[in-house]
Sequence to fold (341 residues):
Amino acid sequence: MVRSSTLLSRIMIQGSQNLHSHTYLSDGKMTHRETLDVALADGCTVVAFTDHDILMPPEIFNELSKLEHKVKWISGIELSTKEGAHIIGLFIDHTNNALVRHCKIVKQSRIDKATTISENLAKLGFTITAEEVLSKASEGVVAKPHIVETLVSHPENIPTLENYIKKFEEASKTNPELAEASLDAKEGNSRWGINAYVYPLFLSETAFVPGVYQDYAGVPDLDGAVSLIRGAGGLAFLAHWHTDRKVFTLEVLESIFKAGRLDGAETKLGWKDKEKAIDQEKEKKYLELAELVDRTGVLHSVSIDAHSKEDYEVFTRDEAFASHSLGILEKIYEKYPDKLS
Fold:
């Protein structure tokens, strides 16, 4: 089964590689073809399509397979887990029956989740409907960014949201856990604006405002997600570790890696605001993760978690990331030559 673009296994990849990218099928802004074109313009030579809990449709897969594009692509997915971690699957068979069934179940469950959250936000006085949220997902899976986008699109919601932010920041002065979430939100606010505050306020099990968030059914645990990926012929990588490092400490990950429960982890991320102190601190943590990956013999992966055209600009701004990404696929191929065939 072909799981990547033609000749990917026969060439030495020159240029940046991004093994974590989203399209309009989940919470991205571009089509697959647009992603390849933008990647090429920004010096990226390999893209892995890893939409949230949804597989590349056969018609798109067939279209890309016939496309002679300078940017090579990989069929992938990003699976959610009960533990909160996201697992990237690379080189998967997009027709695998078990994975297809799983994605259908999760797609409906995401609809139920978005509907309940929209109703709960409306009860707080916000202008928002489930119909609006679901319309933004189109034929893809609905995700948290669709809820956020809908919420902030109504001007009348902003004053109420700002009031919650004030309460959140005041409470964070005496609550260490809230302080960390507040710092992350402030960092995100510099890039995404007020949108970044919606997540810690409402959209997690530990959100500042209780009673809004609801998780969705059908989510596997870590081993279940890895099993689905491997069952589809793929390799499983831990995504954006900094979002889950409280649960998956380095000690826990060492045990997981040594037991063969994961094939690797994203050890280099393209920070969009690299000069900020919080990103510098994350970078130090990722150096520790990279050392653990080397010591345990699992694989490195690289990510800018791309959702938009602007995200790919990191390849022209972050030379360290681009340099680190060189040779990543070659190392994967050395260990698992069949995955790139």
In short: Confidence is low (pLDDT under 50) at residues 274-278. The radius of gyration is 20 Å.
